[in-house]
Fold:
Amino acid sequence: MSDARTVSLFRNGRNQAVRIPVEFELPGDEAVMRKEGNRLVIEPKPDKSDLLEYLRAREPLDPEDLFPDVDDDHLPMREVDL
Structure:
C-alpha cells in the first residue's frame, strides 16, 4: 500500500471535493467511489474494452461442453394420461 498523505478538501458548488496528489492519480476520466464504514474508497472505473478483448482472444466454445446430454442415465419417459 502507498504511503498515506494529508489532502485538501474543498467545496465545488454543493459537492465536497478532494485534491488528489499526482502520485495517487487514477487513469481515465471516471472513477468508482464507495464508503466502507468511515473509509472512502475511490477506484478506477473498469474498462469495458478489457472484457471484449478477453472474449475475442478466447477459443470458441464447443456446444457439447455447454449443453451436455443429461438424459444418459435416466429411464425412458413413459406415457401419462392427463
